[in-house]
Amino acid sequence: MRDADKRVNWRNGTPGEDGSGTPISLAAIQSVKAEVRYRDAHQKRSLRLQVTIDPHRGLVAAGTGEIDGNPVTLALKGPASKADERWPFEASISGPAIDMRMKGEMVGPLRTDDMTLRMTARASDLKLIDRVIEAGLFGTQPVHLAADVTHKARRWTISDLSGTIGTSRLAGRLVVDKVGGRSKLDGDIRFARLDFGDLSTDAGQAAARALEQREGKLIPNTRINIRKIKNTDGRLAIRIDNIVGAGSSALRSMEGVLTLDHRLLVAKPFTMRLSRGVIAGEVRVDQRQGQAQPTVAIALDMRGSSIDALAGGTGEIDAPVDGRARLTGVGDTIREVVGQSDGTIGVMAQGGSLPAKLASLLGFDVGRDSSPVRASRPRCAARRCASTCVAESVRRRRSLSTPAKARREA
């Protein structure tokens, strides 16, 4: 068993990083009948298996259990091989909420430290699969995934990964090395189509809709707290070819490289393509001290866009717009960070007009879209200079002054 604090009762001392153990010869076993019980309070899973081993049938295990309260049946089988013979096996976990099937080969009986397999997985939620594989995944819409998996000593290699999360399609590969008690990642993930709503549960979507109705949707409420990711480093390249869904707004595609080093997450390069124009730059999430909330630095530039496009095509601005944001703040989500940050946001429209609505917006907290600033009070102004319309917001946290009213000059 394993308790909620991850303490186990089947092991003394610290296991080797390569996961290897004493080779087992199933061919030398005449007959074994046993029952295995396992309970894991940390991952909310339990099982009871009936296991038999004999020279004719080999190893056969079958039983029932629960994963996060969902009933499952479990099965494992393989031949009565010698310790130095390759061991083909099949394993499954099946139930209404989750179905995982694995078929592959180990270097010897039960030698999980050296094996290759093909895995398919279906679940009502990616977090439910994480209850099995313990990769630190999050709640989502229903998932269907397939991949080739190789485990050799300290390295896991996931290749030919493909499938769907909700209606979003993805493909990729990932390598995980266990070094010095840390997981080192290197991978590439590509979404042919992504609805950001698919990356949250039904409850998460409902909360997002309520927040949008209450505060608007100019700034996303994406969670960026990485405090719990304390033993993972690495690099992950992400590409999204087509962003869809009600929350996509003017955003059409995205790509970037995420680098994580001891809870310092850097997205660089980072590019978002809009229906008109591009936003590019970098974002740094720093939680290296293990503090409750990260410090986030945002440095983004917008080129060749328009407020008309960003606002959903109202037609109020008919000119190209450039912009830049240099913000530093603390918070669990992008919305919180922007809503209580220091720095500047600047917008420049050439040869066109700036609507009063936009100028007014710059006098409020863009983290809340339409509510007067409380934690931060920007000072802003809009002006026309030589056929160029410029608006700049200077954020000052905890200022007690009332934000200056934006003005529009002819």
What does this structure look like?
This protein is mainly beta and 410 residues long. Helices cover 9% and strands 49% of the residues. The N and C termini lie far apart (74 Å).
Features:
21-stranded mixed beta sheet, mainly beta, 21 strands, disordered C terminus, 5 helices, 410 residues
Principal-axes shape call: elongated
Residue stretches low in confidence (pLDDT < 50, at least 5 long) are 362-391, 394-410
Count all strands and give the number.
21
The largest sheet is:
21 strands, mixed
Share of residues in helices: under 10%
What string gives the helices and strands in order?
EEEEEEEHEEEEHEEEEEEHEHEHEE
- Regarding quaternary structure, what we see is single chain
End-to-end Cα distance, whole Å, is 74 Å
Roughly how many Å is the radius of gyration? 27 Å
The computed structural class is mainly beta
What fraction of residues sit in β-strands? Answer: over 45%
Number of helices: 5
Mean pLDDT: 81
